[in-house]
């Protein structure tokens, strides 16, 4: 947002838009994005009643979020190297499944005595895919990754490896591009724990099936 603010308050654009307007828009976007609030938060009558912020329409919020995203993509394009690791992270949030695409970027720190020994590692979120919206067949998944990389002026030749769960979808993607797929540590740890607790799985299932009870009230705590 700072880049968007800087652009629209520059000398050439200062007359077209006021600083107060951008400050107000920034606070609304920060609130919505950082707390994962609904996009219509700024138009809620209860929000308007309990905040000192000036009203901003949903159209304005969407417009400046898009501008912010464009500015962030420009910054990432400059920061991303030509050797990337692509992380495919399947997530579930409130019963909604989505796939986050990250870039694992290694940059050398020239200030260190031996920069090759201790590179700086950066983890960038490139995009989010929704299986309900996007067809994630092998060919379409490959094309989606290609279009995401293209937005950052990259292509498949910049990919060194993939990181993700060793499911058929990820395996097929890595094979179609000719890059190795590294199983993520979290996935491998989960498999190891399941293997270790295999003999106790029936007991674990019984515990999970037990109904949960609330904490007893104060009167119950003192009963003998």
TrEMBL record:
It comes from the Eukaryota. This is DUF4371 domain-containing protein.
């Amino acid at each position: 947002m700072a880049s968007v603010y800087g652009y629209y308050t520059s000398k050439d654009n200062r007359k077209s838009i006021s600083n107060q307007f951008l400050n107000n828009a920034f606070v609304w976007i920060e609130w919505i994005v950082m707390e994962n609030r609904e996009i219509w938060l700024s138009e809620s009558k209860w929000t308007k009643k309990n905040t000192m912020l000036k009203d901003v329409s949903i159209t304005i919020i969407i417009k400046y979020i898009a501008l912010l995203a464009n500015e962030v993509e420009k910054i990432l394009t400059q920061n991303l190297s030509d050797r990337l690791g692509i992380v495919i992270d399947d997530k579930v949030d409130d019963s909604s499944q989505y796939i986050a695409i990250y870039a694992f970027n290694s940059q050398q720190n020239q200030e260190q005595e031996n920069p090759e020994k201790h590179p700086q590692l950066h983890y960038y979120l490139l995009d989010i895919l929704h299986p309900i919206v996007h067809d994630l067949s092998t060919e379409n998944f490959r094309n989606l990754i290609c279009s995401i990389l293209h937005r950052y002026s990259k292509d498949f030749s910049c990919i060194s490896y993939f990181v993700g769960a060793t499911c058929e979808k990820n395996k097929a993607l890595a094979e179609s591009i000719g890059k190795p797929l590294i199983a993520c540590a979290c996935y491998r740890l989960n498999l190891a724990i399941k293997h270790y607790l295999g003999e106790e799985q029936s007991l674990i299932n019984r515990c999970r099936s037990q109904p949960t009870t609330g904490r007893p009230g104060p009167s119950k705590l003192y009963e003998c």
